[in-house]
Design goal:
98 residues; three-stranded antiparallel sheet; disordered N terminus; 5 helices; two-stranded antiparallel sheet; 41% helix
C-alpha cells in the first residue's frame, strides 16, 4: 500500500476523502448526534457515518478547518451549493426522518 493510499478512507457513500492529519469541521445545522462546529481528525465516527447514510448532505458540510469561514458563509448564502445542502438537512429535520 502506498503512502497516498494509507491517507485515504472510503466513506459510506463510496467517496474517497483524504484524511491524513487534516482536521475537518461540520458547518451544517445542529443534529441530534452532530453539533455545528464539531471537529474531526481522521475518519468521521460511526454515528456520523450513519447520519451520512440517512442524509448525504451532511457529508457535504464537513469541510477542512481552514475553509470554515468560507463554508459557513456559503451555507448561509442563497444560491450556493452549501446553502442547498443546509436547506436539505433542515427540511429533513422538519420531516422528523432522523
Amino acid at each position: 500500500m502506498t503512502k497516498a493510499e494509507k491517507n485515504e478512507v472510503k466513506t459510506s457513500t463510496n467517496r474517497t476523502r483524504k484524511i491524513k492529519d487534516k482536521q475537518m469541521v461540520y458547518v451544517g445545522p445542529n443534529l441530534l448526534q452532530l453539533n455545528t462546529y464539531t471537529v474531526f481528525k481522521g475518519p468521521v465516527p460511526k454515528h456520523v457515518e450513519s447520519l451520512i447514510q440517512k442524509q448525504p448532505a451532511v457529508e457535504k458540510l464537513i469541510v477542512p478547518v481552514e475553509q470554515l469561514r468560507e463554508a459557513e458563509q456559503a451555507s448561509k448564502t442563497k444560491g450556493t451549493l452549501e446553502h442547498r445542502y443546509r436547506t436539505e438537512i433542515e427540511e429533513w429535520l422538519r420531516k422528523g426522518d432522523k
